[in-house]
Amino acid sequence: MTNDELKQFISVHTPEAAFEEAQFLNAIIPAEKIHSLAKHLRENAASDFDFLFCLSGVDWKDHLMVVYHLASRKHKHEVVLKVKIADRMNPQVDTVCDIWRVAELMEREVYDLFGVKFNHHPDLRRLFLDDTWGFPLRKDYKDDATIVSL
Fold first, then answer.
1. What is the structure's pLDDT at 15?
2. Mean pLDDT of 143-149
């Protein structure tokens, strides 16, 4: 599919989607729609997005964002889905690890470093840090460690 065809395909399923053109087509999706759209993109033979090659978090100071890079190995097209999360105190979005198994670890990493909770995740716990840490990739993170000069 071309980017215009992908826009149309996504818009039919999720009319609230907004689009940006970049290296890949970017679709900004409401948080409550991500699981449904992701499942549609994975299971529909016309799109067949069988490969989640990156899932990451971004802190934009006034909101958090979860970004999903998808590819179809069969159709050779790619898309980026972005979910804007306005609630910085309790950021959450539904998991997609039941759609792409690889998301399980990627979502744990975003949880560990940004504090985004993935609803219905089978094992959402910190991956790198213990619970005494905050979320170090957030812009409001304060490091209490004392720097010692030699």
1. 96
2. 63
148 is a domain residue: no
Q: By C-alpha distance, which of 74, 78, 76 is closest to 10?
A: 78
Tokens found for residue 83: 């979910």
CA angle 12, 42, 126 (to 5 degrees): 115
Predicted model pTM: 0.92
pLDDT digits (tens, 9 = 90+) for 91-111: 999 999 999 999 999 999 999
Residue 101 exposed, middle or buried by CB count within 10 Å (0-12, 13-18, 19+): exposed
Q: Is the dihedral of CA 31, 68, 56, 139 positive or negative?
A: negative
Name the domain count of the chain: 1
Residue that the structure tokens 């219905």 belong to: 120
CA–CA distances in Å: residue 122 to residues 51, 53, 93, 94: 20, 20, 14, 11
97, 90 contact by CB (below 8 A)? no
For residue 21, give the CATH number of its domain. Answer: 3.30.460.80
52 alpha carbon, distance to own chain's centre: 10
* In-domain check, residue 70: yes
Note down the domain range covering 70.
3-90
